Amino acid sequence: MAREKANEYRKLLVKGYDPIELNKDKFNKIVTFDVTLSEWLKIEASNVTIRTLKYKRSRVESIYYPAIKNLSINSIDHFLIAN
User: What's the pTM?
Assistant: First the structure.
């Protein structure tokens, strides 16, 4: 698996493409805060009580969600959160 991926990246490099940049672009286009929050809440649901999950969801949705729900997860930094 790793060798196949390495060969794929080498072929991209030969063609003049940077595989890391291609992956960053793909990641930035797909993963928004909204998507990440949904995935995180699914994981948290198996680790915490329903009450705790509801509390976490309400905190995130009331404080951060309106301002950053459609932003790419890579564009969110602590300065944005603080403001």
Answer: 0.56
